[in-house]
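call fold(seq) -> tokens
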Amino acid sequence: MNDSPRTTRTAVGCTLLVMALGAGVTGCGSDGNPLSAAPYDAADQIAFNGSSKGGKKADPDKPLEVVAEDSEGRITDVTARDGRGRFVAGELSADGSRWHSTSPLAANAHYTVRVSTEDEDGAPGRKVLSFDTGKPLTKKRLKVEFGPQAGKYGVGQPITAELDQPIKLKAQRAIIERALKVESTPAAEGAWHWVDDQNLHYRPKEYWPTHATIRVRSTLEGIKISDRLWGGGTKPLKLTTGDKVIAVTDASSHSMTVYKNGEAINEIPVTTGKPGFETRNGVKVVLGKEYFVRMRGTSIGIAEGSSESYDLPVYWATRVTWSGEYVHAAPWSVGSQGYANVSHGCTGMSTGNAAWFYENVREGDLVEVVNSYGNTMEPFGNGFGDWNLQWKHWRKGSALVKGNPEGPTPEDAARLRPTAV
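ret:
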């Protein structure tokens, strides 16, 4: 490390990775306009406290700082990116004298830093720098598992991310969330929501586009989360969506209308939950399909042998909650279907209609119940009730959202200006 007075003055507590910039010499074009000249070399010296000289690599625990040493010049833009394409977020001071990183550096990474400057006459300067980071001292890694399994789903399917250990601090959550990438083709605005300390869900503002391709990946590997925890590798995920299928059940009129891409394709007489067992209102996501299920009243707290007790073989069952709410065949209640609500919370229909429904929906399709006296489907914990949160409330569950939750979705931006460098 250079121990000259100038380097010592600009280093911050000897903990920052420092790149010092000199103003250089400007040249003018034939028209006398300094902006018409080619960019000058903006750095006359570079000082690293974690220098790569002699094979020593930079400490990824220490932030990156770029300083303009010439009082008559200033930094206009800095882009720092590693070999995997991950940008380092940063902040530039108002006077352009200093840029510092605000997101962690990755371990075992090669970084390229592009710096743009201008002198007192406005002439542009540029410098490209590079350095390598070393290994983290700790061996503890955070593992992330994406869900659901790769495949084709309905347009209501949320993406999940399960962490192998709890993360409580918002600053650490922000590091993790920023590294979890979801890309949809066609594009769809969306955001992560922290369900608890170890689970995140991702959904778009509206439903996914039909026939979309969704790719989920993590850039967390090698990123410092805390003093004792670094990001580990994560298997990427690819999903596709099918048609937009929504089944709307009106509990007051005892009917279900199934829509495909906005067009009603079937209207089915149904029965829903009777008083004391009202079906939940709200939007639910199809969790799976089971040709045969044995349903017992004891599974929902009904005492065996009581007047409400039941033990029934059920066919063509489409599950919408983990606690046991299904859309299924109920041949014993055909006389009430379309006229009265007599079930213990499920949506019952004839065997033929249940088979048709079973064959025409897939995981991720949507079942919405309206005009029931039941409570609204919980957002989390009993399936996917994610769509019952308004967008502004969903956004509040993101560790990256600051201020107005209805504002633009936060982007993983590492630059202050769009100018290429």
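The first strand starts at residue 17 and ends at 21.
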